[in-house]
Amino acid sequence: MKKALMLISFLFCLVSLQAQQKTIAERLGYPKNTKLLILHADDVGVSHSVNAATITAIEKGCVNSASIMVPCPWFNEIATYAREHAQVDFGLHITLTSEWNNYKWGPVTPSPQTPTLINKQGFLYSTVDSVKQFASTPQVEEEIRSQVRRAIQFGINPTHLDAHMFAVVRKLDFLKAYIKVGREFKIPVFLAREMERELNIKLDTLTSKNELIVDSIVSITPEMMHSNPADYYAQTLRSLPVGLTYFIIHTAYDNEEMRSVTKGFIDWGSAWRQTEFDFFSSAECGKLLKENNIQLVTWREIRDKLYR
Fold first, then answer.
1. Of residues 24, 37, 27, the one with CA closest to residue 289
2. pLDDT digits over 76-129, tens only?
3. Which portions of the chain are predicted below pLDDT 70?
4. How many domains does the chain have?
5. Is 160 domain-assigned?
6. Is 165 left (phi over 0), alpha (psi -120 to 50) or beta?
7. Which end of the chain is flanked by fewer CB atoms within 10 Å, N or C?
8. What is the pTM (predicted TM-score) of this model?
9. Alpha helices in 22-136 (DSSP H)
10. Cα distance between residue 30 and residue 36, in whole Å
């Protein structure tokens, strides 16, 4: 009997080790050397312009994932769309900052309960550095939880959590709170190897074997945006590595509303977002995905195969 139990234990450990050694592609049911891509639009809910452009990029373009900023003024519009289009891959862009000069929002949790998350005007801080300096971890955790609960209350079925301006993953205690809330709701949280360098940790020490760490993040830099963005996007897709890549873009129409929202900003401003919308809604983008054997995957697929 003892030998049989030892054999069962050994076989269990062997199977667990083999599962851990599988690539992300294999864990999702694809061949080992597949180039997996999540083509992801951030900041949905910020404005009508962002909402409208992102919906078009999803319905008619190549974007296959997006994340919603729950505290923002146009949240209700995109929540209505998400309820009516349950198949769309919408996650939550956990928001601890309010960065624009004249366009602001506060936390979802009532302000008296989150005094360390807000400035003197009652808005979330403009910078990540202020969040790191002043925000308490228990209040950060409760705000993450409040944003998830509010999204669910409005009929959204979140496919994942990710981090606006990466604020919630810039401090180890915040990162742990973010992972904790994701587990509470059985929602994947976006984690990537690039995060390890800033925090000087191994993400594997914080995650379980069924949770996923993205192999690489791609997002255009201001230098490339001001040079030749279309060439950068095309070259990035042509040279996409094997594994799971998270390509972060920001889509909006360069109109009066968006120019007002982003007034004083060039980087990630209104024109920037129109440029990204134009390329990732184009036939050229679709052609590049096909020619380079890129397999689009969604957070919904990851959630349902690995987390639930």
1. 37
2. 999 999 999 999 999 999 999 999 999 999 999 999 999 999 999 999 999 999
3. 1-20
4. 1
5. yes
6. left
7. N
8. 0.92
9. 24-27, 48-59, 75-84, 128-134
10. 9
